[in-house]
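Next up, a chain.

===
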Amino acid sequence: MPMHDPHDPEDRKPEEVDASKGFESSDVRVSGVAVFLLALCFFAGVTALLAYGIGKAINARMAKEDGPRSKWSQTVDLRSLGDMPNNPEMQNKIAEMTQNFPTPRVQTDDGNQDVADLHAREDLLLSNYSWVDQSQGKVRIPIERAMELLAHRGLPVAPPAEQAPLMTGDEQPTIALPLTSGFARTAYELDQAAAQAVEAKRMGQK
């Protein structure tokens, strides 16, 4: 006799439904809904407590890194001043806070005015006479006048470097020419060759 599988759709019998009332007469299970609501409330409560604890920990860490409170770390309530673009009082408050803030301050005009002021100061120094040290009589002259004096007098000549006397047992180093084996000599080689030629000519004249 063949075995029948109770889960086989072909072996299932259709459930008898009382359709005389015209609607579903069975109710949903209240216990399932209550368990779901309790689990949802528990999950929301745990999440809220966890978020609160994390926030407190982050605030405590930030307060520890910021150090003790000072006059620059005070909280200012500006909500009573209303909309800043249309409220002159709030604009004045922001300007006052910006002026009193210690340096370095954030530039409010992308640095254009600061660069213009710097160039104006440079132009004043480069184009006018000014004191460098009035007690010593040092004066800063315009750059054009300095260029004229430099062209007229020439560049100052540095004094020759003093050579220390040789120690006992030391000898003056001699350099054999050429220093390179290539076709082009270095500037030092050319200078040495010229100096040797002048020295040889002077000795020949003697």
